[in-house]
Task: inverse folding
């Protein structure tokens, strides 16, 4: 390049046509502007600068190349008669030889030394631009790979941040739920206790009213009612058929009342049906009063049982890591979801299992989410089952249903945040249930998998390490 520049200077000394063709540009000055036509070509003698392309989206222009002594400026535009591709800006004082088109053509045609030098400079510039293009391509490729790595890191960081946010939301929701449940359980406990005491008092009052002497038949029938359970629908139909065949002249309404009696009381009252219908009716009234008292008692016991489960469920939200029997939390969860599960053929098979180390409230959230998911996926009257069993150093809890199953290929995607296969979003909330479930299970060093069953429906299997095992939480 030094020889080429020396040849250019020698040419300038030899050719009087080149006198006065030198131009100087200060640092920062634009030599050629982007998208303008130029009828001159510049040969840089001293100094250097950059090629810049203005970009509207960014404050600073994009640098696409550099130039220095021996480089042509405006070569492509001059040769192809097209607008320039970039701004050409001096970054230091630049001195160059400017050749307009008529002069260039005349010297190129009439002076072999000039044409030979221009050819050599053209070839050198083109090869140098090619080399710079290759280097730029390699740099762009390196930048692309670096950006891809940074993009992956950012996506992972965002996913971690989103999971952390969901955990915070879930913990806050659990803490709030625990407080609400504790308050609700306390409020329910007082009226439940008062109702239980009132039922005992009511039973005593009814006994004295129905049988003042305490030795008559009405008292026995009242007692039988308080100790008797309601027969099933199938048993009632069978007894009605039998009574209708035996007592054809007895009204059906009376037969329906008689069908509720235990065998001993039914045999005793048979003789009164025709001889003294009023007496038989009074005995049935006493028995049905007993049934009402029993109904009150069973309902109160159910409320008390729910209150206990609510207290356990609420208490577990604020308790930390402890060694527990996971079946206890499952039973409390079943008590609270019974009002929904009673619409299904539900089975709980809770075998003897070793304890696990867990945050009970968080595990209760897992059982709640999986059972609610099964309920939402299964038509009313369908089958749902939860099973607990031991397997080596793990405790396995499986929730299965006979619903529509998991769409093919989505067995893993259903655990992603805000993803749901439900068309009706009215019960599916924010789509965090299964995502939170997997997060809780993994924080317990466990695993959860979802699969479709051959006989239809889906199965969710949670595996938790036994307390004290190598895989358990320390």
Result:
């Amino acid at each position: 390049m030094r020889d080429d520049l020396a040849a250019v200077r020698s040419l300038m000394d030899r050719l009087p046509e080149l006198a006065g063709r030198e131009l100087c540009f200060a640092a920062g000055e634009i030599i050629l502007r982007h998208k303008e036509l130029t009828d001159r070509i510049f040969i840089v003698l001293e100094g250097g600068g950059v090629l810049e392309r203005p970009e509207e989206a960014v404050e600073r222009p994009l640098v696409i190349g550099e130039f220095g002594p021996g480089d042509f400026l405006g070569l492509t535009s001059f040769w192809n008669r097209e607008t320039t591709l970039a701004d050409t800006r001096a970054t230091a004082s630049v001195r160059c030889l400017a050749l307009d088109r008529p002069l260039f053509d005349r010297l190129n045609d009439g002076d072999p030394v000039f044409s030979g030098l221009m050819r050599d400079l053209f070839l050198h510039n083109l090869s140098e631009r090619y080399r710079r293009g290759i280097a730029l391509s390699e740099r762009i490729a390196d930048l692309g790979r670096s950006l891809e790595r940074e993009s992956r890191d950012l996506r992972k960081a965002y996913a971690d941040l989103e999971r952390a946010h969901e955990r915070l939301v879930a913990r806050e929701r659990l803490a709030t739920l625990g407080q609400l449940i504790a308050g609700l359980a306390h409020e329910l406990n007082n009226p439940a206790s008062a109702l239980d005491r009132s039922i005992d008092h009511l039973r005593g009052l009814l006994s004295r009213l129905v049988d003042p002497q305490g030795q008559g038949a009405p008292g026995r029938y009242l007692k039988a009612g308080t100790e008797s359970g309601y027969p099933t629908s199938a048993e009632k139909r069978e007894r009605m058929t039998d009574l209708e065949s035996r007592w054809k002249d007895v009204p059906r309404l009376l037969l329906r009342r008689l069908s509720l009696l235990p065998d001993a009381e039914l045999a005793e009252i048979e003789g009164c049906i025709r001889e003294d219908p009023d007496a038989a009716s009074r005995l049935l009234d006493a028995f049905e009063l007993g049934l009402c008292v029993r109904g009150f008692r069973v309902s109160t016991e159910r409320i008390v049982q729910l209150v206990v489960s609510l207290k356990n469920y609420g208490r577990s939200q604020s308790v930390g890591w402890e060694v527990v029997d996971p079946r206890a939390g499952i039973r409390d969860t079943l008590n609270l979801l019974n009002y929904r599960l009673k619409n299904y053929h539900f089975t709980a098979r809770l075998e003897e299992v070793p304890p696990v180390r867990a945050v009970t409230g968080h595990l209760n959230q897992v059982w709640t989410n999986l059972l609610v998911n099964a309920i939402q996926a299964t038509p009313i009257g369908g089958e749902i089952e939860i099973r607990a069993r031991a397997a080596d150093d793990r405790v396995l809890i499986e929730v299965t249903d006979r619903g529509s199953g998991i769409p093919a290929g989505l067995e893993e995607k259903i655990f992603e945040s805000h993803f749901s296969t439900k068309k009706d979003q009215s019960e599916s909330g924010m789509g965090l249930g299964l995502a939170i479930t997997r997060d809780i299970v993994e924080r317990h060093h466990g695993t959860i998998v979802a699969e479709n069953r051959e006989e239809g429906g889906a199965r969710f299997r949670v595996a938790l390490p036994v307390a004290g095992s190598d895989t358990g939480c320390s």
User: Anything to note?
Assistant: Residues 424-431 have pLDDT under 50 and may be disordered. The longest helix spans residues 112-210. The chain has three domains: 2-110, 187-307, 319-465. The chain has twelve helices and 15 strands.
